[in-house]
Amino acid sequence: MKKQIILLMTDTTRKDMVGCYGNKKMFTPNLDALAQEGIRYENAYTCQPVCGPARSAIFTGTFPHSNGMVTNGVPLGANVKTIGQRLTDNGIKCGYIGKWHLDGGDYFGLGCCPEGWDADYWYDMKCYLNELSENERVCSRQPNESFQPDFSEEFTYAHRCSDRAIRFLDQYKEEDFFLTVSYDEPHGPSLCPAPYNTMYRGFKFEPSAKFTDDLKNKPLMQQLWAGDKLTADEKQINQSSEGLALFLGCNSFVDYEMGRVLDVIKEKMPNAMVIYTSDHGDMLGAHRLFSKNAAIYDEVTNIPLIIKGGEKGKVITTPASHIDITPTVMDYFGLHIPKLLEGKSMLPQIYDTTIKINSEVYTEFTRYEIDHDGFGGLQIMRGVISENYKLAINLLDKDEFYDLKKDPDEMVNEIDNPEYLEIILEYHRKLVTHMNATRDLYRGYQWSLRPWNKNFTPSWDNEGFTRQRENEEYEPRQLDYDTGLPIKEAVRSKYLYEMGGEQ
């Protein structure tokens, strides 16, 4: 039997924008049907709630701080290999159709197919713009174009991505392959044709305490981010608008476009594995905030994740992470999972949902994007999340700790509550251990020198270890600074050698 995986992605889809996650006002019949045929993950998290860094983790299996793409507008490190390169080198066909956002170009990309992917099907957003006249390019960025009498689905990026995906599936239906279809929708400008362009007119979210969060005892950055919304009442924040209606309409439109691809999969390769996810969410007024930034709130970090190819109609509540997608794909194709990858294969869990893969998962934030420097400036956050708790260390601001069972709306920051100190310290140890294990280039004593961690004494040497990269698949083994010979141990004391002699 052929081994085939299709990864469907959308941009800026919150978990509660997919109907099967419980919001009956969301019209997403194709994703809902996919969930019935597979597994729905309730607590799946992005590795960083920004487009490029989130995608870097998905397609490299390494965290943004490891692969170098800590913000939008910078490229992956030259020595970083994507899943496409790894699979292609093992004889597996790889296609990538849609938004890439990993080449260091502007929002649209460079239009150049990276190593490891089928150039005949490469179609990032720059390729789309190259098909358009100058006037059409401008129209493609204007939300109001959705209401023009002659606007059609054929003009949209989503439709053209689906067309190419369908051609790929037809051409390679008898071969092993990995295909990514990465839609920009429903991300703004949220272009969509009738009836989707008016489907959510008048919509607003159900009343929630989240819209009234005064952000006291929260990071200053969040208060600045809220701006004049900090003193607004819920009616001013949670209200219907043309922008929200179009955004949600586009969300239903891209579900329709994915449905076109899913129909072909069902007809021509019913045994293929299908993965659906989104890169991150949007605050949409929760906690008086909009868009995304250095936050650990569910609205931006807790993304939809649906996988068909194992058990059917199951829901998993234990934590899942984008960091596990690349090792899962490699495991599915029977390939060795490289030591360099920082996630784990979810394949055992996909086939048996009683298996637990993660007790906790990790998310991060480092700055924003180069051409949007004004959005909060330098923000550095590292977070650890379980079913019960969230800890966010905001390096230049106030830290956060939430008891998710007691406070699922994440309204009360318990970081200064002495009743939680032991749990906070436990999660803090997990986070620092994770930063060390993944060679986080921003680690240092500052992550432990927190106001609530009163017994910590900083050291110039930090923890006293040298940690080198172990990647033996695509590059020579790194050399030991003290000997010039290949490293024997990647993690070792900084003081193993001194003055030319071994201690």
UniProtKB/TrEMBL annotation:
GO terms for molecular function: metal ion binding; sulfuric ester hydrolase activity; transferase activity. It comes from the Bacteria. It holds the Pfam family Sulfatase. Keywords: Hydrolase, Metal-binding, Transferase. Residues 4-334 form the Sulfatase N-terminal domain. GO terms for cellular component: cytoplasm. InterPro entries: Alkaline_phosphatase_core_sf (IPR017850), Sulfatase_CS (IPR024607), Sulfatase_N (IPR000917). Belongs to the sulfatase family. PANTHER family: IDURONATE 2-SULFATASE (PTHR45953). This is Sulfatase-like hydrolase/transferase. It comes from Simiaoa sunii.
